[in-house]
Amino acid sequence: MFAALLSIVLAAPTPWAVNSANTLVWDSKPYLPIGLRIPGTLEAIERADKLGAKDVIVELPASGSGWSQCFKALEDREMRYILCINSLGPMASGIRVEPENLRVPNINSTRRIDLPLPGVDYGWMVLADQRDGSILESKRISASGGTIGTNILNEGGGNLVAIFYPYQKNLPYLDLWDGFDQHRDSMIRSLRLSPPGPGLRGILNPLGTVVQFPSAEPQYVPTSRIFRLSFESYLRKKYTTVSAALRAWSISAPDFDTFSVLSRLVPLWTRTRGISYLWDPETDKTYLCESRKTVAWRDIQELFAQANANRVARWCDSLKRILHVPVVQEWKGYSGPYIGTQPPVDGIGVSMEASSIDGMLDQPARAAALLDGWKHGGWFVVSSVKPDAQMSDALLTASVEDAVSLGARGLYVRSDNPADFDRVKTAAQTRLTALSGSRGRYLPYPLSARNPAMVQRVLGGVWWVPGSGEGERIELGAKYGSYRYAGEGQSFYALWSRIGDTKIKIRVANPKEIQVTTVDGFPVQFKVNKAVIELALTGSPILFRGLDQAPIPVDAFEEMLAQTTEILRLFGNGVPNADQELLMAKDFLEIFPNAPGKTMAQAAKQLYRVAAGTLDYCWLEAESSPEYTFSEALEDQGCSGGGYLNLKTEVSSDLAPHYARYSVRPHRTGNHNVWIAARMGPLDTDSLLVQVGDRVLRVVDPPVSPYGNGFAWYRLGDFNVQGGSMDLTVEFRSRLPKDVAVDCIVVTPNAFRPDALTPPIVIPKAN
Questions:
Q1: Boundary-marking domain end, from 611, 634, 657
Q2: I want to staple 369 with a disulfide (CB 3.0 to 4.6 A). Which of 176, 302, 465, 678 is the partner?
Q3: How confident is the model at residue 2, as a pLDDT?
Q4: From the centroid of its chain, how far is CA 213?
């Protein structure tokens, strides 16, 4: 491969670098393009030239079609260009292991099941008793015309569940094996036959249009020869002997003794679903194993991670060395080749295509946090600006200026409207030049802490941005906001006031080792009295380092405990386990000084638990459903109750209904509203409904109060309560694939104003 690329070497390499301000420096000068993103046609190039755009991103396929004439046209006009590979990147093929997705539950009679799955060839089907999980049948099944199916025999009438493990081509993941090699070889041929000229300024998306990069937990196992040989080599190197590998994989009664067989086995489980067997697609034999002990998935994940890092890195490095230009990857979520402190790419491209400032800044803010953690400079490019037709000049100007302040050092407009190019150019030009040597400053927050944290400027021009690290929102009541963050080489607790400037006392576990600074790095003066810190707090966060648990404002803890004890005083034995709850509250007072963070977390849970039976509204945790056909309940500290109910399925609701059932007992009669906190797209709202008695409710208003990792609140209309308990069912009715989640449901007789994931606590009056 490298030898082939050597024949493409451009004339004399132009020295380039990316400085600390995320600016590409070309031939010792800052390169600050404001241009157009265009298709690779002569007509588009001519149009861009007439508009005065001397910088373009030109989209061309990896096959080389149209390269020669486009490069010539660009060079003749002395235009500078980034080559964007817009053909579909190499897509994976393999056996999908998604038992939470490809499953049909509640089969209570003999029936036929047919699943339409594009590119399906064959598969494995497991039929199990839904009650105890015992396996009734497992077999290979065939496919025809993009559909895989089988007859299910159920003579007993009990509920059965069928799980499918299909082999599919063209899965929406980057193929790191055969497809990768084919894509690389295709680009090498294209570059050899049609080398770009001196106007080239970069390569965008060197792997083509990627639907999804491999995640940390791959949900398919390739069957290609290259994968299996690589996996066999990996296993041989790691374990040395087959017997050691079999022990690590916890396989019971193996009938083989070669790494070759081991390398082709497919685990049939994931985090919460599936069966504890490994399947050999070559022989259709299955092997029992202990899924809680085996490292089978871990070994597959490690090989994926190695291939993702090594193969992508070598390809990017080859392109840079031969073409003498930076390689940039567009944002595709938190699993792309831009993750880490020393990624193989030289920059990140982001999109600004939305109707609001928040939407326009979403990707730029995420990229800013990632680039801030790189050990080398990273070019920050807005590779696609597509102004909404309804967006005013003022809003567009503000969005573009904010993107440049966040660190963007190049913008390319994708629009057929000539006025859009002028609008963006006018908004960005002066600011881009002024900030070309300045490095942005950022305060990251975990996605789980979104709302109250949000993308905005805070003290000293520092930007609050969603980071790729982990952490959680810390519940402190209405007066304060707080979260923990660990990522990009830093770890801290953030704390700020939501009621204006105030002086407070903060309890910490180890005050001698604490470091307190403003977001822009200046020390915060404070007094220490034993384990209590006294300082001034404002609306801008201050950062605490050197702590192993959260710093807690004393008045926030006292207020939360006072609310709990007041409810217990007013309602006495009307609260379940009231005596025990009162004793627990007294214990919290004693342990708070030594463990403030942990005690506060427990006190918050107690308050919501004690208040639940005394409030006018009913707050239901979605994951608490006693009966559901959603995919699985997952943990997420950015959600109410620390978890949510996830539905990721390609099974039509006509074939297997998607529902979660609850029992709700409103405390009043009369009219009640239903609200749901969910993560879903605009097209999903039509398929969501709630059934209460004979009433069917649907989404009636746009989402409000977004929070966490994509959640927001939806109102679903009202119904009349006559009294007593009733069944409430949440359903998604659709024949299309779904990837949605439900956090919680609220049934309330009063006006409800959602505030992220915090239940409103009002001390009621006892009857």
A1: 611
A2: 465
A3: 47
A4: 12
Tokens of 91: 């897509």
Looking at residue 531, which CATH number applies to its domain? 2.60.40.1180
DSSP 275-333: EEEEEETTTTEEEEB-TTT--HHHHHHHHHHHHHHHHHHHHHHHHHHHH-S-EEEE--S
- φ/ψ of 619, rounded to 5, equals -115, 115
Per residue in 91-108, pLDDT tens? 999 999 999 999 999 999
Query: Strand 200-204 vs strand 327-330: parallel, antiparallel, or unpaired?
Result: parallel
Express as a percent the part of the chain with pLDDT over 90: 78
- Please give the Cα distance from 685 to 412 (Å, whole number): 33
If you average pLDDT over residues 703-722, what whole number do you get?
93
Strands 442-445 and 463-466 come out as parallel
80 and 122 in a common domain = no
* Domain match, 675 and 707 both: yes
Q: What are phi and psi of 167, to 5 degrees?
A: -90, 125
Instruction: Tell me how crowded residue 57 is: count the other CB atoms within 10 A of its CB.
Output: 27
Instruction: State the CB neighbour count (10 A cutoff) for residue 510.
Output: 11
Rg (CA), the chain: 29
Q: Residue 2: what are its φ and ψ, rounded to 5°?
A: -65, -35
The reported pTM is 0.90
- What's the pLDDT at 5? 53
| Angstrom distance (rounded) from CA 350 to CA 318 | 24
Q: At what angle do helices 296-323 and 178-193 cross, to 10 degrees?
A: 0
**Does 703 lie in the same domain as 654?**
yes
Locate 712 and state its tokens: 């927001």
Q: Which amino acid is at 215?
A: S
Q: What's the per-residue H, E or C state across 124-135?
A: EEEEEECCCCCE
Q: What would the mean pLDDT of 365-391 be, rounded to a whole number?
A: 92
- Cα–Cα distance for residue pair 7/652, rounded to 1 Å: 52
Q: Does a structural domain hold residue 760? A: no
CA distance linking residue 691 with residue 12, whole number of Å = 70
Query: Which DSSP helix (H) or strand (E) runs through 39?
Result: strand 34-39
Q: Does 208 have pLDDT greater than 70?
A: yes
What lies within 8 Å, CB to CB, of 354 at 6+ separation is: 360, 362, 388
What does the pLDDT look like over 29-80, one tens digit per residue? 999 999 999 999 999 999 999 999 999 999 999 999 999 999 999 999 999 9
Highest mean pLDDT among 35-49, 424-438, 451-465: 35-49
Q: How far apart are CA 732 and CA 690, in angstroms?
A: 9
> Among positive and negative, which fits the CA dihedral 352, 358, 362, 367?
positive
In three-state secondary structure terms, 64 is coil
Calpha distance 274→296 (Å, rounded): 14
| Residue 170 in this model has a pLDDT that exceeds 80 | yes
Q: Are residues 159 and 56 in the same domain?
A: no
The total domain count for the chain is 5
Query: Where in the sequence is the domain holding 567, given as residue range(s)?
Result: 556-611
**Residues 594 and 455 both lie in one domain:** no
Number of H helices, E strands in the chain: 14, 46
In three-state secondary structure terms, 572 is: helix
Residue 398 has pLDDT above 90, yes or no: yes
Domain final position from 294, 326, 351: 294
Distance CA 558, CA 475 (A): 13
CB 226 within 8 A of CB 182: no
For residue 647 the two structure tokens come to 């539905």
Cα–Cα distances in angstroms (integers) from residue 336 to residues 205, 329, 331, 345, in the given order: 11, 8, 7, 10
